[in-house]
Amino acid sequence: MTESAERQITSSSGSQDVLTLKKDSSRFQDSRQSIEALKDILFGSAAGIIGKIIEYPFDTVKVRLQSQPDHVPLSYTGPLDCFRQSFRTEGISGLYRGISAPLVGAAIETSSLFFSYRIAQDALQATIIPRKDNAPLPLNALVLCGAASGAFTSLLLTPIELIKCQMQVPVSASPRRSSPFSLVASVYRHSGLLGFWHGQLGTLIRETGGSAAWFGSYESVSALFRYQRTPAPCESDNTILASLPIWQQMLAGATAGVSYNFVFYPADTIKSRMQTEKVSEVLHSPRKNFWAVGKALWRQQGVAGLYRGCGITVGRAAPSSAFIFVVYEGLRKWFG
Fold first, then answer.
1. What is the model's pTM?
2. pLDDT value at position 160?
3. Could you count the other beta carbons within 10 Å of the beta carbon of residue 212?
4. Which tens digits make up the pLDDT trace of 12-21?
5. C-alpha torsion sign, points 268, 269, 270, 272
6. 66 vs 4: CA distance, rounded Å
7. 87: exposed, middle or buried (C-beta count within 10 Å: 0-12, 13-18, 19+)?
8. Which of 11, 61, 166, 330 has its Cα between 20 and 30 A from that of 186?
9. Rounded distance, CA 298 to CA 305, Å?
10. Residue 268 burial (C-beta neighbours within 10 Å; 0-12, 13-18, 19+)
11. DSSP code per residue over 68-118
12. Confidence of residue 263 (pLDDT cuts 50, 70, 90)
C-alpha cells in the first residue's frame, strides 16, 4: 500500500471518528434536555400542588368576592365577612370545594411555567444572547422569558380555571351542587370545545404580565442576596439559586407572589366574572367579551370593583409562592 493511500485511509478514519463524536454529543444533549424537562414537570407539579393546598381557601374567598352580582346588594362586606359566612354555611369543606380541578391545574401551571421558562432561556442563549463563561442571562431577558412562559401556560390554564371558578360559586347561587364532570359536560353542550377557553384574554394578560413579574421579582431578589454574599464557584445557575439559605429563597418567592398577583389583578377579576356566568343562562344571548365586562365593572364599581379581593389574594400568594420556589429549588438540589 502506498503512503498516499495510507494517508487517505487515516484521514477517512479520523473524519468518521469526528462524526461519531458529534452524533454521540448530540444524543447526550437530547438526553440531557429530556431529563431536565422531566425534572421541571415532576418538581414543578409537586411544588404547585403544595402551594395550591396552602392557598385554596383564600382563593375561594377571592372568587366569591369577585363574582358578586352587580344588580343586587353585595353579599359580603369584605374578605373576613366572606370567610365567616362561607365557613358558617358550608364548613371547611365548602372552602375547599372544587379543589380537585385546581390541584390538577396547579400541577400543570407550575410545571409548565418552570418548563417553558427554561426552554425560553435556552432559546435566547442559542440565538440572541449566547452564554459566556456560564454567566446568567440579564434581568430584562429573564423577564422576557417569564412573559413567554406565562403566555404558553395560559392556554393550558384557562379551561381548568373555568371549571374551578364555576365550582367555587356559593351553593346558594345555584340550585344544586355540580361536579367537575357535569360542569365540563355543560360547557361542552352549550358552548362547544371553544367554550372552555371563555375568559382566555384575561388569563393571557394575567399570566403573561404576572409571570414576567413573578420570575423577574424572584430573580431580582435572589440576585440581590447573591450580590451581598461572598461569591462562590458553582457549576450552574441552579446551583447558585439553591445555595441561598431557605429563608432567602422564601423571601424572594414571597416577593414574586405579591408582584404576580397585584400588578395584573384587574384582569383576573374580569376573567372570574366571565367564567362564573351560568352557561345555560347565556345560551340565547351573546356572552360579553373581556372589554365589555371590564367597562361594565368599571362603570358600576370603579377601581374598588376591579381590585375586590386583592388584599386576601396578595396575602395568600406570599406564603404559597414562597413554598413553591423552596420546594422546586430544593428538589432540584437534592436530585441534581
1. 0.74
2. 85
3. 24
4. 555 555 455 5
5. positive
6. 83
7. middle
8. 61
9. 7
10. buried
11. --SSS--S-SSHHHHHHHHHHHHHHHHHTTT-HHHHHHHHHHHHHHHHHHH
12. confident
The confidence score (pLDDT) of residue 177 equals 60
Spatial separation of the C-alpha atoms in residues 57 and 64, rounded to whole Å: 11
Buried b (16+ CB within 10 A) or exposed e, 25-57: eeeeeeeeeeebeebbbebbbbbbbbbbbbbbb
Q: Is the pLDDT of residue 271 over 80?
A: yes
Give residue 62's region: left, alpha or beta (phi > 0; psi -120 to 50): alpha
- Residue 196: other Cβ atoms inside 10 A: 18
User: With b meaning 16 or more CB within 10 Å and e meaning fewer, what string describes 147-168?
Assistant: bbbbbbbbebbbbbbbbbbbbb
C-alpha cell at 223: 440576585
pLDDT tens-digit profile of 214-242?
999 999 999 999 888 755 444 444 444 44
Instruction: Give whole-number Cα distances, 234 to 78, 238, 240, in Å.
Output: 49, 9, 7
